[in-house]
Amino acid sequence: MVNTTGEAPGESQEFSGRDRVAIILRVENVDAAYEQLKSKDALVIKAPHDTPEFGMRVAYFRDPAGNLIELNQEV
Q: What gap in Å lies between CA 73 and CA 18, rounded to an integer?
């Protein structure tokens, strides 16, 4: 989804208490999947980062309907 808000990717539509749906996808390589989606103008919410408390590497996007999408892999 192309960011049409005029804001830089990752600066709009952060996590919200209004999120009722989160689509969680486990992938082999979060960084590679992130780069592929970013190159297709997906709306980035948060770049890949480690979450040591969960033992995961994650990245976040929004789909065209505004739903939160998490990509994750075990680290």
A: 25
Return the closest-CA partner of residue 68 out of 17, 7, 8, 2.
Answer: 17
Q: What is the pLDDT of residues 29-66, one digit of tens each?
A: 999 999 999 999 999 999 999 999 999 999 999 998 88
**CA atoms of 6 and 11, how far apart (whole Å):** 10
**Distance between CA atoms of 47 and 58, rounded to whole angstroms?**
8
Distance CA 62, CA 44 (A): 7
Report angle CA 56, 43, 63 to the nearest 5 degrees.
80
- Could you say which DSSP state residue 8 is in? P
Name the pTM for this structure: 0.77
If one counts every other C-beta atom within 10 angstroms of the C-beta of residue 28, the result is: 7
